[in-house]
Design a protein that fits this description.
Shape: globular
Distance between the termini: 43 Å
Number of domains: 2
Order of helices and strands: HHHHHHHEEHHH
Strand content: under 5%
Mean pLDDT: 89
Length: about 260
C-alpha cells in the first residue's frame, strides 16, 4: 500500500472516530478522547528530548489528567498550573540534593512546557460548542490538506528550507485558499457572521495553523528527528497531526473574547 493511500485511509478513520464521539458521545467520552490524544502527543513531544526516560513521560501524562478533567475538581486551571510548577521544581530540588542521578533542570521544565503546549490547549475542546469544534478542526484540516497537495503538485520554491525542507510558497498559499473556502462556506452555513468575519478568521487562523506546523518542524529539525512518532500510517505521530490544530484553537479562543462568532 502506498504512503499516499495510507494517509487517506488514516484520515478517514480519524474523521469517523472523532466525528462519532462529537455527534453521539457524552462530555466524558470527549474528555477521554482528549486524554488519549493528549497523552500520546505529550509522550511524543517529550520523546523528542529524552527518549528513554519512561518515568518522566509517564509522570507528565499522569499530570495531564487533572488538567483535562478539571471540571471535576474544586481548583481552577491557573491553580493547577501553579501547583505543577512548584511540584515539578521541588522534585528537581530533592533529586538534585538527595541522589546521585544527574537529571537536568531543563528536563523538568520540558514537562511543564509540554503540559501547557498540549493538554492545556486540548482540554478547552470540552467546553466549545459542537459547531465551533467543527469550525476549528475544519480550518486546521483544510489548511494542512490543501498545503500538502498544492505543495506536492506545484511547489518548487521553498518557503523556509532551514525549518522545513518540503514546505513551499505554493503550499502556503494553497493552505490559505483551503482555509478561506472552508471558512466562507461553513461560516455562512453554521454561523450568522457578517460577510467579512469568515475571511478575517480564515486568514488569522490559517496563519496560526501554518506557524504551529512550522514550529513543530523547527523543533524536529533542531533535534534531528523526522517525525514525532509513527502511530498514524502516512502521517507520522499524533503531534505531527495536531501541531497546527493546537495553535488554531488557542488563537480562536483569544479572538472569541473580542468578537461575537
Amino acid at each position: 500500500m502506498s504512503n499516499h493511500l495510507k494517509r487517506i485511509l488514516t484520515g478517514i478513520i480519524l474523521i469517523l472516530i472523532v466525528g462519532s464521539i462529537l455527534l453521539w458521545g457524552a462530555t466524558i467520552h470527549l474528555q477521554f478522547l482528549i486524554f488519549v490524544v493528549s497523552g500520546v502527543a505529550l509522550w511524543e513531544f517529550l520523546s523528542l528530548f529524552f527518549e528513554k526516560s519512561f518515568f518522566l513521560k509517564t509522570f507528565a501524562i499522569f499530570l495531564s489528567i487533572p488538567i483535562i478533567f478539571n471540571n471535576f475538581l474544586p481548583l481552577s486551571l491557573i491553580h493547577i498550573l501553579i501547583i505543577y510548577f512548584w511540584l515539578i521544581n521541588l522534585i528537581f530540588l530533592f533529586i538534585f540534593g538527595l541522589s546521585d542521578k544527574n537529571r537536568s533542570w531543563q528536563d523538568f521544565q520540558l514537562i511543564f512546557l509540554g503540559l501547557i503546549y498540549i493538554p492545556l490547549v486540548l482540554q478547552f475542546f470540552k467546553d466549545i460548542p459542537f459547531k465551533e469544534i467543527c469550525y476549528i478542526m475544519g480550518i486546521a484540516v483544510f489548511s494542512d490538506t490543501c498545503a500538502y497537495y498544492s505543495g506536492t503538485m506545484w511547489g518548487k520554491k521553498k518557503l523556509w528550507p532551514k525549518v522545513s525542507p518540503k514546505k513551499s510558497w505554493v503550499g502556503a498559499f494553497g493552505s490559505l485558499a483551503g482555509a478561506l473556502i472552508f471558512s466562507i462556506l461553513y461560516g455562512s452555513f453554521a454561523f450568522s457572521m457578517k460577510w467579512y468575519l469568515p475571511i478575517f478568521l480564515a486568514i488569522v487562523l490559517n496563519l496560526g495553523a501554518q506557524l504551529g506546523d512550522l514550529f513543530e518542524s523547527a523543533l524536529k529539525r533542531y533535534l534531528n528527528v523526522k517525525d514525532s512518532g509513527g502511530i498514524l500510517p502516512g502521517h507520522g505521530g499524533i503531534l505531527d497531526r495536531i501541531d497546527s490544530l493546537l495553535f488554531v484553537c488557542a488563537i480562536y479562543l483569544i479572538i472569541k473574547n473580542f468578537i461575537t462568532i
